[in-house]
Amino acid sequence: MVDHTYETIIEDVLDKGYSIIDNFLSPSTVELLRNDLLWQYDDDQFKKAAIGNHTNEVIKTGIRGDFILWMDETTANGPQQLFFERINDMVQYLNRTCYLGIFRKEFHYALYPEGKFYKRHLDAFQNDDRRKLSIVCYLNEDDWQPEHGGELVIYLKDKDAREKPLNIYPFPGRAVIFESRVLEHEVKPANRERLSITGWLKTQ
Ligand SMILES: O=C(O)CCC(=O)C(=O)O
Ligand SMILES: [Fe+2]
Fold first, then answer.
1. Taking every annotated instance into account, which residue ranges of this chain make up the domain Fe2OG dioxygenase (predicted)?
2. What is the model's pLDDT at position 128?
3. How far is the centre of ligand 1, averaged over its atoms, from the C-alpha of 1 (Å)?
4. What is the CATH number of the domain that holds 124?
5. Residue 176 Cα, ligand 1 centroid: separation in angstroms?
6. Count of domains observed in the chain
7. 57 belongs to a structural domain
8. Least buried of 63, 83, 172, 203, by fewest C-beta within 10 Å?
9. Overall average pLDDT of the 157-174 stretch
10. Best of 69, 109, 187, 195 to mutate for ligand 1, by most ligand atoms within 8 A of CB?
11. Which domain range does residue 74 map to?
């Protein structure tokens, strides 16, 4: 059966390299995940995010200032299961219709304290290019406004190859999907805590 949301995602990513999907997660799922994130954060389960992967990771607060907690699907609690069901449904569709060959994924919760940011970067590692698609899902409060900041800026190119940044606000329920190896992006500081799930669909 044709799913219009997924078809739009596929078309967007092929055309433009990214897709923005509002209501990717329902308000009730966002609230459950937000409460779970905050509970785990208060329980000291998060660690300072590092740059690089397991073999060469370093903490550089001048580059990124968020705290993360990796999510394990095999031990997922109720809210996390809702999240993985949503992702798995999408991945199955992408694999079936586009032969994307995604059979691994990794996701983490992220909390950016007020004023923290993640400087311009690419999500693919120098020593590992298995990350194909990056996905960010925002878990912020319903009253998040543009003046709270915290934009995801993606650096697009216009048809003359001139750089054209696009600001995307982290509204709750919204997901942004983009090609990990292609699109440079950054997270601007917000004037309140900024909550999300970030992850990658991988080919191996
Ligand atoms: O939170 C976002 O909007 C993007 C996060 C990001 O770029 C990353 O974790 O690699
Ligand atoms: Fe990133």
1. 98-203
2. 72
3. 32
4. 2.60.120.620
5. 10
6. 1
7. no
8. 203
9. 95
10. 187
11. 4-51+63-202
Q: Is residue 167 part of a domain?
A: yes
The answer to the question of residue 9 being in a domain is yes
Which residue's alpha carbon is nearest to atom 3 within ligand 1? 152
Q: Do 76 and 69 contact (CB within 8 A), yes or no?
A: no
CA of 196 to the centre of ligand 1 (A): 8
Give per-residue pLDDT as tens, 60-87.
778 999 999 999 999 999 999 999 999 9
pLDDT of residue 126: 62
- Strands, E assignment, 49-112: 67-71, 104-112
41 CB burial (10 A radius; 0-12, 13-18, 19+): middle
Return the pLDDT at 79.
Answer: 98
- Ligand 1 contacts (CB < 6 A) are 110, 118, 123, 136, 152, 185, 187, 196, 198
Q: Which two tokens stand for residue 130?
A: 């298995």
Q: How far is the CA of 15 from the centre of ligand 2 (A)?
A: 20
Residues of the chain with pLDDT > 70, as a percent, come to 98
Q: Which of 2-6, 129-133, 151-155, 187-191 shows the lowest per-residue confidence on average (mean pLDDT)?
A: 129-133
Residue 59, helix vs strand vs coil: coil
Give the ligand 1 atom nearest the CA of 194: 1
| Domain membership flag for residue 56 | no
Confidence of residue 112 (pLDDT cuts 50, 70, 90): very high
Measured in Å, residue 136 CA sits from the centre of ligand 1 at: 6
Q: In degrees rounded to 5, what are phi and psi of residue 4?
A: -70, -35
- CA–CA distances in Å: residue 147 to residues 114, 155, 174, 189, 191: 13, 21, 17, 11, 8
Q: Which ligand is nearest to the CA of 121?
A: 2
- Is the ipTM beyond the 0.95 threshold? yes
